[in-house]
């Protein structure tokens, strides 16, 4: 593939990053303080598009219409027997968790994935900031899961344009020079410590499978049988 048709993200050991894009043959370099990158449209379009979702919020949403509630005095209204509290029913009123994200796009387009990662990451860092590297990797894994593309759900333009999916996911830790990979079938992470590799000129070239084409699971049945061990730690 022509590398000029891709958007490239470059990150240094401090976490600073830039975006490299070729737009109509011209190289554009962006200081990626936003920290998100997807494909089409261009990066600056994605950044401006975040302003369309400014009404999203990280907090409990009941205060949005505080003071505007009106009582519902009707025996047929379903919330007359409110399962959440004993107060008389009013509208509008919260009916469950998660509505603070109402309006967050959920389709597989680059535009929606950019918005989804930006806000989910920001809210997660605000409410539950990672305490260490492991927690940061878990959060990064969750964000990747949130933008996973299921094969068969995103059609191509024609017979020559394959179905889109997420064949490989990557986690990188620039400060420790570690890279983690997983595939579509087997989502077990595989780690590469770049500090241990020989990058000198003339070094022997080696290969490692970073994504398996086969489904993988850990069988823990024996831990539930009478002759099995008492516990399992993986």
Helix percentage range? 10-25%
The biggest beta sheet is recorded as: 3 strands, antiparallel
- Give the tally of β-strands: 8
Number of contiguous helices: 3
The end-to-end span amounts to 40 Å
Q: What is the strand arrangement across the widest sheet? A: 1-2-3
Shape: globular
Radius of gyration (Å) = 24 Å
Class by SSE composition: alpha+beta
Helix and strand pattern: EEEHEEHHEEE
Low-confidence stretches: none
Instruction: Give the rounded overall mean pLDDT.
Output: 89
Give the amount of beta strand, in percent. 15-25%
Question: What report would you give on this structure?
Answer:
This protein has 234 residues and is α+β, with helices and mostly antiparallel strands. 17% of the residues lie in helices and 16% in strands. It has three helices and eight strands, in the order βββαββααβββ. The strands form three sheets. Strands 1-2-3 form a three-stranded antiparallel sheet, with no helix packed on it. A three-stranded antiparallel sheet has the order 6-7-8, with helices on one face. Strands 4-5 form a two-stranded antiparallel sheet. A hairpin with a 4-residue loop joins strand 6 (168-173) and strand 7. The chain starts with 6 loop residues before the first strand and ends in a 41-residue tail after the last strand.
Quick overview of this protein structure:
With 234 residues, the chain is of the alpha+beta class. Helix content is 17%, strand content 16%.
